[in-house]
Amino acid sequence: MKRIVFTGGGTAGHVTPNIALIPSLKDAGYDICYIGSYDGIEKKLITDLGITYYGIDTGKLRRYKSLKNLSDPFHVIHGYSESASLMKKS
């Protein structure tokens, strides 16, 4: 079976275009899964559709001074590693 992996998060604005595509892709025979943050808004939107959802570690781009800016690159690197591992399993 052909598989499509969607990703996106942060705001519903990144997720809703994916949601619009999912029904027609499922009808065309694709197996669909979604990769997003552990607890972002995308998780509820996607799981409500019955789509397999995988959460990964994520960072945030802040345009202001914050100590979290120092740790976020490590979250992004870890999330990249998690997503690469998920893609290999698929």
UniProtKB/TrEMBL annotation:
Residues 4-89 form the Glycosyltransferase family 28 N-terminal domain. It comes from the Bacteria. GO terms for biological process: carbohydrate derivative biosynthetic process; carbohydrate metabolic process. InterPro entries: GlycoTrans_28_N (IPR004276). Keywords: Glycosyltransferase, Transferase. Pfam families: Glyco_transf_28. GO terms for molecular function: hexosyltransferase activity. PANTHER family: UDP-N-ACETYLGLUCOSAMINE--N-ACETYLMURAMYL-(PENTAPEPTIDE) PYROPHOSPHORYL-UNDECAPRENOL N-ACETYLGLUCOSAMINE TRANSFERASE (PTHR21015:SF27), UDP-N-ACETYLGLUCOSAMINE--N-ACETYLMURAMYL-(PENTAPEPTIDE) PYROPHOSPHORYL-UNDECAPRENOL N-ACETYLGLUCOSAMINE TRANSFERASE 1 (PTHR21015). This is Glycosyltransferase family 28 N-terminal domain-containing protein. It comes from [Bacteroides] pectinophilus ATCC 43243.
